[in-house]
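Sync notes, pocket subgroup
Present: LS, DG
LS reminded everyone that the earlier model was apo-only. Rerun requested with benzoic acid included. Inputs:
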Amino acid sequence: MAVRLGDKAPDFTQDSTEGSINFHEWAGDSWVVLFSHPADFTPVCTTELGQVAKLKSEFEKRNVKVIGLSVDPVDSHKGWAKDIEETQGVALNFPLIADHDRKVAELYDMIHPNAEATATVRSVFVIDPNKVVRLTLTYPAPTGRNFAELLRVIDSLQLTEYEKVATPANWQDGDEVVILPSISNEEADKMFPKGYKELKPYLRMTPQPNK
Ligand code: BEZ
């Protein structure tokens, strides 16, 4: 069954390049990015894993742990990790789940048989510290993901978790945000001391409160 926004992220125990991992225990009180790959020794995945390894400090800044997955065994992952280091100039610095029996892929609906019968598609799940699924993305095998966009949406998820705002189209951290329509002008006057522009009663822009 599909894993949807607001669902509890299914727990599992599975092999990885860093030994056996119980997912919820490993996640602890961090946010998590769980992302899948079609297969080991594939070109796009090699660049994606290198890119994520290079962004480690950006994920850490946001209290995010990253974990990858493909349906190959640990020995294969370890061989591939050498290629990633050689070609991308960075060592794998997060665990890669070896989902050889497709247990996790099935739990998270990462195999889309009408696209590809056996391999996982490029799924992304962002999971909050309460283990609730907050974002899902699905890309086809030939299209590599944009990890700057992933950091951007994590910034939005974390901001809108704590402030009564939403982030408009193409928002980047530090840009103006939208006041939630459920907040009255009287409440907004108190909540947003930097002020706001009312373009329409439902469209009020304010400087990002936590900046
Ligand atoms: C890849 O993962 O690199 C890939 C998979 C399928 C088609 C093209 C590239």
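DG: The helical segments are 23-27, 43-54, 56-61, 74-88, 103-107, 147-162, 185-191.
LS: Residues 13-144 form a domain with the Glutaredoxin fold (CATH 3.40.30.10).
Action: DG to write up.
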